[in-house]
């Protein structure tokens, strides 16, 4: 007969406790299926900091100036996160969990959901300004997500400090449009059943916050991209935001996976022609002429993506000649037909001929150049890097 769920869970927790005792005795976590590698690494970091599982946990607030700086630095994140937090707390309303948002140091900057003020275990962590970093309170989903840069699920005895054994939490890191970790999102419950599926929910919510943060940035064009065959307009799209000159102003996590960013010195600008093997002006042409039609997007690696080129909401508002497209994916910026950025003068016949050749070659610049009898560099120079008058 198969063991009941409570017995099986209790057995697993006993194995976790045994693994932690082995770590304390031998200084190295055993390789057990019950203990994920990232948990063992966190335990080892706690030991290296001189922590003992039996020590008391004191949840302390950062200084007032430090909190003020954090809140000021994270205003854009808070604006992007709050609508997502409202939806998230509705989803977990019946589970006795609440949501915590921290900055990159693990300082709480927002709390939403049912955080019971009468329970000191909830009120001690569910306050803006509390330091929940790994260095302060040991192994938690918050500290682990910030250290490991991956979504995590942590339940009761998997915490390093005994005082934290009543908590269950799921956490996911948050990345800014440049790909830097800017904080994390956490779901915490107290004396609740194990719910590892919350790791997926918190990761999905974190990606929604990242997308909202990216869309707040001023940009001229948004590329929604994915692999051929995927439906564009969903939350799984890669988002690449461009300015009017084709420079990248930001990308979400999915876009950075689909189109690896080249190494750049801090503060250096990446142009979309460094990422895409096509004249960048074709993206603006596609947004103007066929805003609802997927665009073939060749990469320098030889791989191909599909994309929708969308004018930004700001472009829509500021352009008197704009017209709204009938296609607008849920949660996406409005798709509009608007004039493209004004390019420097080129001979119209030559430009039209080269552009048509590239279109006929489905974006394959090398093929278009061979058909025209010119070099690929000439195609890019004529279409992708216009010169001044």
Automatic annotation (TrEMBL):
Keywords per UniProt: Kinase, Transferase
Name of protein: Histidine kinase
Residues annotated as domain DNA binding HTH: 346-383
Entry-linked InterPro entries: GAF (IPR003018), GAF-like_dom_sf (IPR029016), Homeodomain-like_sf (IPR009057), HTH_Fis (IPR002197)
UniProt domain GAF: residue ranges: 79-201
Keyword Transmembrane helix in annotation: no
Keyword Hydrolase: no
Lineage: Bacteria, Pseudomonadati, Pseudomonadota, Betaproteobacteria, Burkholderiales
């Amino acid at each position: 007969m198969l063991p009941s769920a409570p017995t099986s869970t209790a057995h697993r927790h006993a194995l976790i406790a045994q693994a932690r005792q082995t770590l304390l005795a031998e200084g190295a976590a055993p390789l057990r299926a019950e203990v994920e590698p990232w948990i063992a690494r966190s335990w080892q970091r706690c030991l290296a900091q001189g922590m003992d599982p039996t020590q008391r946990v004191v949840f302390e607030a950062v200084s007032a100036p430090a909190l003020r700086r954090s809140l000021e630095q994270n205003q854009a994140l808070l604006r992007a996160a709050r609508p997502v937090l409202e939806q998230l707390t509705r989803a977990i309303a019946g589970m006795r969990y609440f949501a915590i948002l921290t900055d990159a140091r693990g300082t709480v900057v927002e709390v939403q959901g049912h955080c019971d003020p009468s329970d000191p275990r909830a009120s001690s962590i569910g306050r803006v300004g509390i330091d929940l970093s790994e260095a302060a309170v040991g192994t938690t989903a918050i500290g682990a997500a910030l250290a490991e840069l991956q979504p995590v699920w942590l339940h009761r005895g998997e915490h390093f400090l005994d005082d934290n054994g009543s908590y269950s939490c799921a956490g996911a890191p948050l990345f800014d449009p440049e790909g830097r970790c800017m904080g994390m999102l956490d779901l915490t419950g107290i004396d609740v059943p194990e719910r590892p599926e919350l790791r997926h929910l918190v990761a999905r919510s974190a990606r929604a916050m990242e997308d909202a943060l990216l869309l707040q940035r001023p940009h001229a064009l948004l590329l929604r991209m994915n692999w051929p065959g995927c439906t564009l307009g969903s939350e799984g799209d890669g988002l690449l935001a461009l300015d009017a000159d084709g420079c990248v102003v930001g990308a979400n996590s999915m876009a950075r996976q689909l189109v690896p960013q080249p190494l750049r010195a801090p503060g250096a600008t990446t142009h979309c022609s460094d990422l895409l093997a096509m004249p960048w002006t074709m993206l603006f042409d596609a947004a103007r002429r066929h805003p609802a039609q997927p665009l073939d997007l060749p990469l320098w690696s030889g791989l191909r993506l599909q994309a929708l080129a969308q004018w930004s909401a700001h472009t829509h508002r500021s352009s008197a000649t704009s017209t709204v497209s009938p296609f607008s994916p849920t949660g996406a910026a409005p798709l509009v037909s608007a004039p493209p950025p004004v390019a420097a003068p080129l001979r119209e016949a030559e430009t039209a001929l080269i552009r048509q050749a590239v279109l006929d070659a489905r974006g394959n610049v090398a093929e278009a150049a061979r058909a025209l009898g010119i070099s690929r560099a000439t195609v890019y120079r004529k279409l992708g890097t216009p010169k001044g008058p």
